[in-house]
Design a protein that fits this description.
Keywords: DNA damage, DNA repair, Nucleus. The chain contains 9 helices and 15 strands. The longest helix is centred in the C-terminal third of the chain and has 28 residues, at about 320-345. With about 350 residues, it is of the alpha+beta class. α2 packs parallel to α5 and α5 packs antiparallel against α6 (about 215-220). Strands 5-4-3-6-2-1-7-8 form an 8-stranded mixed sheet, covered by helices on one side. Strands 9-10-13-11-12 form a 5-stranded mixed sheet, sandwiched between helices. A two-stranded antiparallel ribbon has the order 14-15. It has 2 domains: about 15-205, 2-Layer Sandwich (Heat Shock Protein 90), CATH 3.30.565; about 225-345, Ribosomal Protein S5, domain 2 (2-Layer Sandwich). The model is unreliable at about 340-348 (pLDDT under 50). It binds adenosine-5'-diphosphate and magnesium ion. Magnesium ion (MG) binds next to α2.
């Protein structure tokens, strides 16, 4: 029809643009926690404490003993694309830190009330600053404090009512927070992690400093899993990867599937690898039952693309199919090696 009018195209307001982008990166409290844990690890912390109120929706606070943030950087630290980690695009191929694009704190400041308290080794006192929509609010105030950083996030999604409504269950959000923390704790046993619900005397989760992966699995996931763990590493020259694995033998199984996967220290998901590993176990475990699997893969950084997903949950890597196949073979061989007698016995 002739009377159809095209829409008028206008540029969105900057605050709207930032809030939309932030909502993609920070989908729920657990995404925020992942970003904050990675920042604390990037800052070489050995102690990381997380405090939570209402599943992280009311308060998500993380305290570390890392490098701290310089006073002069507090001005811009929450702006989008401000980072101390990446300088040139080419450096992304060699990136050794979790962060690289300076979006986490900015995003959080667009969807929550954010404050940072921090002290570096050089400065005599600490500073506390509050942020809104990427900008420093007022001036940083001098304060006492130990070296390190406390990031406090309050009223997450206060300005996104639909999102808030979708996240109705603080218990579920807390569960997801503790899953993220648990995984990082298993992968980083040198660092001590604590997770607390505000107001509760006992921490919900705590691992000691200078622990081990097996010990942390025992503390967090229980002795039934820890005592069935089979440990192996595998180095592959052809497809250029190294794998460290801790997985349960076929005597153990659970209704809940647990796969902790790290690629170049990053917590990621790989449906292809999970399916492959599950297929190996399916031969041995009762129907609908699953193993506990921890895998840490190390690839040459130039074979890995970390910049494919806003939450960085997904990564792309070279030789993916081949690597998955090799790992599958490894798991199969190791399970057989350690369990041939028991499986035989069971089949009688
Ligand atoms: P990125 O991690 O991609 O650089 P972020 O928005 O997560 O972006 O953080 C911005 C910057 O703030 C970091 O590059 C780092 O310099 C600093 N920073 C954030 N959290 C911490 C922390 N816990 N300890 C020390 N510095 C931090
Ligand atoms: Mg970061």
């Amino acid at each position: 029809p002739e009377d159809l009018e095209p829409g008028v195209i206008r540029k969105l307001d900057e605050v709207v643009v930032n809030r939309i982008a932030a909502g993609e990166i920070i989908q729920r409290p657990a995404n925020a926690l992942k970003e904050l844990l990675e920042n604390s690890l990037d800052a070489q912390s050995t102690h990381i404490q997380v405090n939570v109120k209402n599943g992280g929706l009311k308060l998500l606070q993380i305290q570390d003993n890392g490098t701290g943030i310089r006073r002069e950087d507090l001005e811009i630290v929450c702006e989008r694309f401000t980072t101390s980690k990446l300088a040139r695009f080419e450096d992304l191929a060699q990136i050794a830190t979790f962060g690289f694009r300076g979006e986490a704190l900015a995003s959080i400041s667009h969807v929550a009330h954010l404050s940072i308290q921090t002290k570096t080794a050089k400065e005599k006192c600490g500073y506390k600053a509050t942020y809104a929509d990427g900008k420093l609010h007022g001036q940083p105030k001098p304060c006492a404090g130990n070296q390190g950083t406390i990031i406090s996030i309050e009223d997450l999604f206060y300005n996104m009512p639909q999102r808030r409504q979708a996240l109705r269950s603080p218990a579920e959000e807390f569960q997801r927070l503790s899953e993220v923390l648990a995984r990082y704790a298993v992968h980083n046993p040198r660092v001590g992690f604590t997770l607390r619900k505000q107001g509760e005397a006992q921490p919900a989760l705590r691992t000691p400093v200078a622990s081990s992966r097996t010990e942390n699995i025992r503390i967090i996931y229980g002795a039934a899993i820890a005592k069935e763990l089979l440990e192996f590493s595998h180095r592959d020259e052809m497809f250029k990867f190294q794998a460290e694995c801790l997985l349960t033998q076929v005597n153990y199984s659970a209704k809940k599937s647990q796969m902790l996967l790290f690629i170049n220290q990053r917590l990621v998901e790989s449906p292809a690898l999970k399916t492959a590993v599950d297929a190996v176990y399916a031969t041995y475990l009762p129907r609908g039952h699953h193993p506990f699997v921890y895998m840490s893969l190390t690839l040459p950084p130039q074979n890995l693309d970390v910049n494919v997903h806003p939450t960085k949950h997904e990564v792309h890597f070279l030789y993916q199919d081949e690597i998955v196949e090799r790992l599958k073979e490894q798991v199969e061989a190791r399970l057989l090696g350690s369990n041939s007698t028991r499986t035989f016995y069971k089949q009688l």
